[in-house]
Amino acid sequence: MAKRLFLLHVGPGSVDVATMTDALGLGGVVVPDATAEDLEHAGIEIRRSHKAAGLKRKQVEGAWARVCRRARKAKHDCFVSVPAFFDATPEQAALALDGLDGFKVVLVLTSGFTVEPPAAWTSLVKGGRTHLLPSRLTDAQLAAQVARIALIEEEARLDKRLAKVSRRRKQVNRKLAA
Q1: Residue range of the domain that includes 61
Q2: For residue range 100-130, what is the model confidence (pLDDT) as tens digits?
Q3: Into how many domains does the chain fold?
Q4: 132, 111 Cβ separation under 8 angstroms
Q5: What's the CATH code of the domain at 84?
Q6: pTM for the full model?
Q7: Are 30 and 80 in contact (CB under 8 A)?
């Protein structure tokens, strides 16, 4: 079975994911049933900045795991936006990616072309799975771009599967001819 996509938006600016669901649906992407508070707490938990946010560790503990569990329950490709991940260290980014085991992670960065994308994330995600977008996109434009990225990934998966089936068909035809 093919791995599902987890499109992770990391950008300095926040987006309203609730308004993006219809446009994301065009690409077969859903938003997991996680609250805005869960996503905010996930960013605080991974970056270990609960004291600076005026929270106790107990209040944010497990928030990212909850988001990941809800993404698994969605049974579809998922889109999640956690702007607080933008400033994560390489160790923190690796910790966040550990929770996404079993997903094919695609990183969507809206840092624009003037700000350097965070190396902590780009070094951990496989090449070709990082998409840098302009920083001044509206939520609708971002949703359209994310849907386009999901469709490109689906096309690549289907092309790979078609090539595999074609090779298998040639093998079968050779055996039948012999």
Answers
A1: 4-177
A2: 988 999 999 887 777 788 888 888 988 888 8
A3: 1
A4: yes
A5: 3.40.50
A6: 0.85
A7: no
